[in-house]
Task: structure prediction
Amino acid sequence: MNDRIIFEDVSKFYGEILGVNRVNLSIPPGITSLVGPNGSGKTTLMNLMTGLVRPSRGQIQVLGYKTDDPEHLFRILGYSTQFDAFPKGLTGFQFIYSYLRLAGRDAQSAEQLAWRAIEHVNLTDAATRNIAGYSKGMRQRIRLAQALSHDPKVLVLDEPLNGLDPLARSEMIALFRAAAAQGCYVILSSHILHEVDVISDQVILLSNGYVVAEGPIRSVRSEIQEHPTQILIRCDKPRELAAKMFEDEHTIEVAIHKDGRGLLLKTRDADQFYLTLNQIALNGIEIESVVPADDDVLSVYGYLIGNEEVVR
Amino acid sequence: MSVWWPQIKAVIRLELKKTFLAKRGLWIYLVAALPVLLFIAYAVATSSQQNRSANVARRNEKPLTYQDLLAVKTGMAREEVVAILGKPSLNFHWVENRPMGPQTTLNIHHEEYRYSDGQNDLYVNMIDGKVEAIDINQGYNLGQDSIVFAGVFQFFFLRLAVFFGCLGIFMNLFRGEILDRSLHFCFLAPIRREVLTAGKFLAGLLATCAIFVTSILLQTIAFVWHFPPSARDLYLYHNHGLEHAAVYVGVTVLACVGYGAFFLVAGMLFRNPILPAAAILIWESVNPFLPAVLKQFSVIYYLKSLCPVDIPSPPGTPALLALLISNPDPVSVPTAVMGVVIVALVALYISSVQVRRMEINYTSE
Result:
């Protein structure tokens, strides 16, 4: 398939150390987040995807291009790595301009693209200063600008929000969304799960080099059978509703909300729950809202991986 | 393929800026400047000596030629010397009281006469009015000086300055970026890694050629500077001086090509430059003692054959040292040039294979 990023039975070992093992993925357009603790294989997966490391086993194709074909691959792919180092002696503008020239662009188009990318990340004022004098956030943004500068179809971003202030974070998230809305493939890794939850169309959960789940977050959640689904119900008669819900054999636990205007319910069968709730609603209890309480990345991450190194 | 050349030019621009302005490369300029400083110092000393000789010649009783100076022989009487050369413009004399026994001394009269024809100085030492020793100090000797130049070129410039300069520049093309953790930017550009390697090699070649060709040209200028204009013209235009200078430039360029390719591949294969540098230096040094087949895999083997001036071994030189100095089995010029080019191409081929295998894993470096 030429419209996906495909990993076929990919493993990577650094000597005897496992990077990732037996990874099979098919990544569609949109924003895909790689989530996992340190050492889980997120960066290895990104480096494999961009040919910076070669798989010990298996095959990778990015929209039909092999990762050992940089001449074609990097015309459609931009990668902002976590390496916080730059070629010495270059200003922000020179940095982006030089690598656009390296890509074969003529001077005029390289200059135009470089300035446009710099404007995208709001670094215009600092563009003529040496990168060595940039703050961490500015270095992060100039890396993003470089990855974005040639309008790639696939954008791979390793911890792209690290070091950014809240305003810059929201600007970058808007940028990623805009790219995804235009049909781009945005692959990013992050420790900040609530941001991942907000921006991701799908997630890939990694642990110890293995992919433990992948797909849209709600479908991932629905596949986790051993953890009952939690649902927050807002209603005018929570105690009556709780009593009726206990009649459903799939209900495991019901707790009245602290404010007394709703209840938190755990059920083994969400579909059966919604059917039961519909009947109850017809019998005089006014239901204000029904919200799944644990189908976010944070909960899924907690269920599948544990809570180590999670930033909430 | 049409995009390769603009890409190579972009690599060269990036690399040249780093190479010429890198603080860690300053020692290369120093190494390249050393022989220039040596020849400048020699030229200054020789010029100063020539001025002194001219002063002495001006004060001679009569104008002298080199043949006049050669006419003085040991055993001649003071009067004979004065008859040939006139009264000396400089003379020194002293009496030595040599003890001959208890309370007995012998007075020995020493004299030193100094003459000059304006270029060459004659020192005549006399004891008790008879010439005991003569010493002619030649102002310049083109033949001797060009052998000295050839010796400095072969044994310092080629084998040490260009060798270590290439090591410093070419090994850093990849290794330096790995240490700076910035190589991934090149690997993330839409450029074939072989093209990247070619660009880096050409950048290194331009840098080393600029530095070392400038050095050899300055050495040549410093070398001929102190000759009188007539001798300089004679050397440059009638005694192959210009031709030799052009050959030295060509050999320097070929040395940069050969050693550059060696060190480019070494920079990819080894983390520590000392080991490959030592290995290659030893290999190049023992080249005269290697079997004919192995000799061909060396850069110096071909470069020696291209050098325009043979360095003769002084009489009595030990056989091993003589073998090191001389070039007993020179190859023809086309073979030598092709040899360096082929050795370089083999090294570049290995580089291009190696660069395709390279992974970015800075933590293991």
Observations:
- The radius of gyration of chain A is 23 Å.
- Chain A has eleven helices and 14 strands.
